[in-house]
Design a protein that fits this description.
Length: 155
């Protein structure tokens, strides 16, 4: 299997295809705005904040890969988690943005030439590992709050 196919498999697994881990689509299925904003304590991030954080980096790296201009960011990594700090929208808008960026990644990898895919393979694998890590956090948070249904992939 070539790098392109491996990366596409990883991106699809993160976005919407359950496999070795639960996809984002399954991890957030049925989650309300209130549940998405819930925190067990102030040291934790909410699911909404985690998805916002993923959107920040997924979109930045996609723009970089596509050769688009990236806004200068002067904040810290912590600043990427809070959708309200960045003037972002509702939970549904945050979810729609995640799905859109991941669809953009899939399309970009499908259309990229082999040299670009090879050059970026290390970044791509870190991006998908980063997504999988945070998807696991989301499932854990949902288990803490009692909103997880194991039929979505993890018991």
């Amino acid at each position: 299997m070539k790098n392109r196919e491996i990366l596409l498999d990883q991106l699809r697994a993160c976005r919407s295809e359950n496999g070795w881990f639960t996809s984002m689509a399954s991890a957030v299925k049925g989650l309300t705005q209130k549940q998405a904003d819930w925190k067990s304590n102030e040291e934790m991030n909410s699911v909404h904040e985690i998805v916002q954080h993923l959107n920040f980096y997924n979109e930045r790296y996609l723009k970089r890969f596509l050769g688009e201009t990236i806004e200068t960011f002067e904040g810290s990594n912590d600043d990427t988690f809070d959708p309200r700090e960045r003037g972002e929208g509702t939970w549904q808008q945050t979810l729609d943005a995640y799905d859109s960026v991941m669809a953009g990644w899939i399309e970009a990898i499908e259309q990229a030439d082999d040299a670009a895919v090879e050059k970026w393979t290390g970044d791509f694998t870190h991006l998908t590992i980063h997504n999988a890590y945070h998807i696991g956090q989301i499932v854990f948070i949902r288990k803490q709050q009692g909103s997880w249904d194991k039929k979505y992939g993890v018991s």
